[in-house]
């Protein structure tokens, strides 16, 4: 998300640093500020939280003005990157193949990747949700040899920042189908161990119910991550542990 000033970012980091949240073995917390704030956030953020970039370039750095390479992120000590976010797919016309190449290159440089998939409202209403997310996932699977450092994020485009949220049942249905796809195309082990997280208007009010779903392994949080309720979302990781 393209939000924030230095003062606002420092305030958010302070809230996170003071928060009482479950330990790292229960929930892994990764925050993803805009590029310009990455070093600041990394220097101020508590050590049990990690930092992600919101994007990186498809190959080695060079004459690609305005882009940020995977190598630069590694050099800064940034462990994670988000790739294939729906806004980049739609606004910047990043194709499934382009995203697949990006994921493979970032992994080759030692980054961990949060790879995003998701359908538009039109695609959902026409009944092609699974065909769309399967094609997006396939484009990644064809380019990578290991899923160890990939987290798959399902973010229905119609639910991002719209206030519309996939119902827990809708989210579970797609997550379950994605896991089946991984099982059929990447094997049992990948299907069992790959985390599939949900993104799309997640907030403090709906996170617990979403978190109870069998195949929802976490969240990719947008607007709510800028508010104190982000702490409640982090804490919802304990829902399954206590079930």
Automatic annotation (TrEMBL):
<dbReference type="Pfam" id="PF00121">
    <property type="entry name" value="TIM"/>
</dbReference>
<keyword id="KW-0413">Isomerase</keyword>
<dbReference type="GO" id="GO:0006094">
    <property type="term" value="P:gluconeogenesis"/>
</dbReference>
<dbReference type="InterPro" id="IPR035990">
    <property type="entry name" value="TIM_sf"/>
</dbReference>
<dbReference type="InterPro" id="IPR000652">
    <property type="entry name" value="Triosephosphate_isomerase"/>
</dbReference>
<dbReference type="GO" id="GO:0046166">
    <property type="term" value="P:glyceraldehyde-3-phosphate biosynthetic process"/>
</dbReference>
<dbReference type="GO" id="GO:0004807">
    <property type="term" value="F:triose-phosphate isomerase activity"/>
</dbReference>
<dbReference type="GO" id="GO:0005829">
    <property type="term" value="C:cytosol"/>
</dbReference>
<dbReference type="GO" id="GO:0019563">
    <property type="term" value="P:glycerol catabolic process"/>
</dbReference>
<dbReference type="InterPro" id="IPR013785">
    <property type="entry name" value="Aldolase_TIM"/>
</dbReference>
<protein>
    <recommendedName>
        <fullName>Triosephosphate isomerase, cytosolic</fullName>
    </recommendedName>
</protein>
<comment type="similarity">
    <text>Belongs to the triosephosphate isomerase family.</text>
</comment>
<dbReference type="GO" id="GO:0006096">
    <property type="term" value="P:glycolytic process"/>
</dbReference>
<dbReference type="InterPro" id="IPR022896">
    <property type="entry name" value="TrioseP_Isoase_bac/euk"/>
</dbReference>
<comment type="pathway">
    <text>Carbohydrate biosynthesis.</text>
</comment>
<comment type="subunit">
    <text>Homodimer.</text>
</comment>
<dbReference type="InterPro" id="IPR020861">
    <property type="entry name" value="Triosephosphate_isomerase_AS"/>
</dbReference>
């Amino acid at each position: 998300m393209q939000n924030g000033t230095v003062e606002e970012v420092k305030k958010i980091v302070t809230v996170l640093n003071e928060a009482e949240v479950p330990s790292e073995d229960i929930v892994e917390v990764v925050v993803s500020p805009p590029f310009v704030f990455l070093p600041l956030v990394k220097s101020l953020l508590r050590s049990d939280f990690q930092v992600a970039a919101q994007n990186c370039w498809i190959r080695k750095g060079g004459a690609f003005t305005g882009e940020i390479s995977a190598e630069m992120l590694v050099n800064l000590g940034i462990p994670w990157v988000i790739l294939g976010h729906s806004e980049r797919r739609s606004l910047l016309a990043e194709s499934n193949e382009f995203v697949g190449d990006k994921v493979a290159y970032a992994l080759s440089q030692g980054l961990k990747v949060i790879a995003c998939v998701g359908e538009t409202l039109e695609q959902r209403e026409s009944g092609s949700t699974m065909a769309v997310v399967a094609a997006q996932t396939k484009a990644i699977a064809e380019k990578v040899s290991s899923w160890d450092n990939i987290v798959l994020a399902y973010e229905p485009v119609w639910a991002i920042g719209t206030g519309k949220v996939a119902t827990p049942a809708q989210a579970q249905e797609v997550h379950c189908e994605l896991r089946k796809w991984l099982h059929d195309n990447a094997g049992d082990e990948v299907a069992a161990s790959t985390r599939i997280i949900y993104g799309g208007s997640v907030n403090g009010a709906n996170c617990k119910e979403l978190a109870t779903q069998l195949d929802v392994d976490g969240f990719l949080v947008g607007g709510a991550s800028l508010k104190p309720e982000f702490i409640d979302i982090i804490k919802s990781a304990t829902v399954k542990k206590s079930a």
